[in-house]
Amino acid sequence: MTDPAAPSARPEGGAPPGRAAGLQGAPARASGKAEAGPGRPPPLPATAPTPGAPGGGATPPGPAARLAALLAVLAGAPALVWPAFVNGYPLLFSDSGAFLHQTLGPLVIWDKPHVYGPLIHLFHWRVTLWGPVLAQGLMVSWLLWLLQRALRGQARPGAHLAAVAGTAALTTAPFSAALLMPDILAPAVLAALLLLGFARDRLGRAEAAGLFLLATVGIASHLSHLPLAAAVIGMVVLLARRPVPVLRTAAPLAGAIAILLATNLWGHGRATLSPHGATFALARLQADGPAAEVIRARCPASGWYLCAFADRLPMDSDEFLWHPDSPMNRAPDGTARFLGGALLSAEAREIVGETLRAHPWDVARDLVLNTLRQLVLAGAGDTLPGKDLPVAVRPRIAEGFPARELAAYDASLQVRDALPAAMAPILPVHGPVLVLGALLAGLAWWRAARDGEARRLGLVVGLLVGVTANAMATGGLSKPHLRYEARILWLMPAVGALALARPVAPRARRWRASAPARPTRAADRAAGEGPGP
Fold first, then answer.
1. How many alpha carbons fall within 13 Å on the CB side of residue 436?
2. How many CB atoms lie within 10 A of CB 46?
3. Residues of the chain with pLDDT under 50
4. 173: CB partners within 8 A, 6+ apart
5. What is the maximal distance between C-alpha atoms in the chain?
6. Core-most of 47, 239, 308, 473, by most CB within 10 Å?
7. Alpha-carbon torsion 441, 442, 447, 448, what sign?
8. Dist CA 164 CA 160 (whole Å)
């Protein structure tokens, strides 16, 4: 029976198909050519798909194999959101209420793309929030299946369940997947783009289309995913040096930009990527100091609103953005400013521009330092407390969901602030595992470079580029937080272990010596592109 996920015909390192695929009686000469003879299959072109591979010219996986693959991926979903089951309800964050309000209100939120709220609405329909969380677990399980196939040649149910078990038990992945936030879409974007860029030959058409859709919506769901995607595309340009892989990875970014322009035109009246993003840039620049210096130097002549608060700056960026008594949210006369961040955005753009012109090197230095700090700051701890949920989330559940859903929310450990204690025994393992993951990824990089394995090299190097870009887009441009890097660093031990695992040899087709098979048209087409960069 054919395995549901056979590898491409060109094995890692460019070995001849006959040797790498284990075809019957096909010894390879030192020159890399396989001999044909009685009982042996003729050598296939180096770029042709191996029998059984997606898009190859062999019998597709049988029903039993497809069912086994489907059951394995489905079984991984609940395992990857196990913290929600311990909690008794999906994990929530203060911003979860805003995303729910996007469709329950409906309400356009000034500081968030109008994407994730409608996305999760497709899975809850005002019935239960378990739907979106289980969908997130299923997404992660599916991506692990595809990554196993891309890195090992084939994906098999037993190996997949082992990978799921290790990821669920030892990494921060389940805490991001069980959280009703777009955090889990950051690693999904990274994995999807890398698979499209470096492992397209190991994907079926429906899988490639699904990854394109996932990457497009995922990039649009949070502004920090834009620089993440741009960094991955730049890496594909450098490693692939061919237009087709670059176009495959750039297409989701173009689609995401179109979504953001359209939704902001609809919701804010402006076709822009972020109508009030300058407010967040100002919060970071004043916290680091350069923008506070510009405000003091230009006031009172500039007439800026913030001149009245020059003596209070710099302050913590989170306090500047969210504290009810911050300069952004309370006027000098003490009156509250509704949507203060939106009101400040025009002035913020001017101050940010002045700061970049006056202190470019200071800004660059602070960006690097904050990025480095974020790279080593990762943990699930800040996703567990529930002190802000009664005000930020409970009203949304009460107004939009059945009474039984509200009762389940009220009974959860997180709402009773008992979840941190319940998770305390498991949290210490995450740090050492993430360090081990970095070592595994580094070793996989070295081995792939040594052996000339282009596909594996692209996936591993792309992973390292992605986690660094994520640190820059979050900690560097916003503020270092535990959950920002924890949402994506778990890919390092997962991908590192898969990249170092022994490749899975496909089961060979039976060949008839009297009628050697010829490469298919699909193989001919594949020969023009080939796998990997």
1. 11
2. 16
3. 1-53, 55-59, 508-533
4. 80, 140, 167, 187, 490, 494
5. 93
6. 473
7. positive
8. 6
**Interatomic CA distance for residues 384 and 83, integer angstroms:** 10
Tokens read off for 189 = 């974007």
163: tokens are 């990978």
DSSP string, 328-381: TTB-TTS-B-TTHHHHHHHHHHHHHHHHHHH-HHHHHHHHHHHHHHHHT---SG
- CB-CB contact of 441 with 464 (8 Å): yes
CA dihedral of residues 81, 86, 88, 94 (deg, nearest 10):
-70
pTM score of the predicted model: 0.85
Query: Which residue's structure tokens are 């090197």?
Result: 361
Q: What residues pair up with 330 in beta bridges, in sequence order?
A: 336
3-state secondary structure at position 138: helix
* Dist. CA 52–CA 343, nearest whole Å: 59
Residue 82 near residue 72 (C-beta atoms within 8 A):
no
pLDDT computed for residue 288 by the predictor: 96
Total H helices, total E strands in the chain: 26, 0
pLDDT digits (tens, 9 = 90+) for 223-262: 999 999 999 999 999 999 899 999 999 999 999 999 999 9
The set of long-range contacts for 305-311, using a CB threshold of 8 Å and a minimum separation of 24, is 305/344, 305/347, 306/344, 306/347, 306/351, 308/332
